[in-house]
Amino acid sequence: MSVFLVRHGEVENPDRVVYSDMPGFGLSSRGREEAAAAAEYLAGQSVAAIYASPLERAQETAAFISERCGVPVTTRDDLTEWLAARRWKGVTWEDLPTAFPGELEAYLEHPADLPFAEESIAELGARIVSAVYEVTAAHTGENVVVVSHQDPIQAGRLVLRGLPLAGLHLNRPGHCDVLTLETGDPWLEVGHWVPDIEGHPPPEWPPVKSPSPG
Fold first, then answer.
1. Which of 112, 116, 111 is nearest to 99 (CA)?
2. Is the pLDDT assigned to residue 53 strictly greater than 50?
3. What CATH homologous superfamily does 2-193 map to?
4. pLDDT tens digits, one per residue of 62-116
5. Residue 17, CA atoms < 13 Å, CB-side half-sphere
6. Reading across the β-sheet that carries 73-75, which strands appear in turn?
7. Model confidence over 186-209: pLDDT tens digits?
């Protein structure tokens, strides 16, 4: 079986705030295009089930996939955003170093060691892996879509593949990227699909500058 890990589409966020689990942050027009493209790609993958984070941006993305694949969406709270981001919500990325000195730098430089975090990256990875194990057990031999957020998907991806969490910022999934994993010990990543949308997307926040995996 295959598990398709899907990051939600681009969010309407002109002020570049850390939105975490704040309401009112849905997909932008580009994000809807990305979600439609991901849905078209997944329509050819014999999807049997779709699970999604409860947050608006993930639900909107999952709805596109659901409509195209003809499969209902099941919401799972354990697929929600990284809980540590709630500490920063409402603050712009540019203001974060002033509001919480040293914390953004720590997240970018050594994400596996964040003493201020409500939820560590290791705990996040374990949360996502537990969810993935549960949904795969419920759909033995079937293909499953999991729609979540960048850090949760990346942390779960690393744990499933037996890779160090210090590599959180390496080859991160972009908006509506589809990561295809197959069960195993460790799991195998057999595909990384990227939506082909015209134009150049704005830079993501926070900007990651090739951090060291060590």
1. 116
2. yes
3. Phosphoglycerate mutase-like (3.40.50.1240)
4. 999 999 999 999 999 999 999 999 999 999 999 999 999 999 999 999 999 999 9
5. 16
6. 73-75, 47-52, 143-148, 2-7, 178-182, 188-193
7. 999 999 999 998 876 767 777 665
Q: Is the peptide bond before 206 cis (omega within 30 degrees of 0)?
A: yes
pLDDT value of position 26: 97
User: Three-class SS string for 9-58?
Assistant: CCECCCCCECCCCCCCCCECHHHHHHHHHHHHHHCCCCEEEEEECCCHHH
| Sequence ranges of the domains in the chain | 2-193
Q: Cα–Cα–Cα angle for 187, 59, 78, nearest 5°?
A: 50
Q: Which distant-in-sequence residues (6+ apart) come within 8 Å of 43 by Cβ?
A: 68, 69
